[in-house]
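Appendix B. One record, verbatim.
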Amino acid sequence: QRAFHHAVAQLLFVTSHCRRDIQTTVAFLTTRVREPDEDDWGKLKQLLKYEKGTMYLPLTLEATDLGVLNLWVDVAFAVHPDFRSHSGAAFSLGKGVSSNTGGHRMSRPRRPARCS
């Protein structure tokens, strides 16, 4: 468990500094650091193989049309055991994703509106 946590923490650092392409996978693995199972270890090993095989490939970003912004958003509502939601977004100006985000969102009940 400690080795899994340490490896994911290192990948999180690498993701934020130079390897944006693995950000989605690392974001998922960060949700599994408390109790990683055999499948999680398999995902980590596969990611490390991918990382090793693509280490020297350059990151390519191109803007094909500055007037067109491609945006992709995905949300899953209350999918975690604590009823948190998960969401992610990415945008691009052409070739390559220039920024992406993801994470847990707390699902809070709304208060009923009061009428005066």
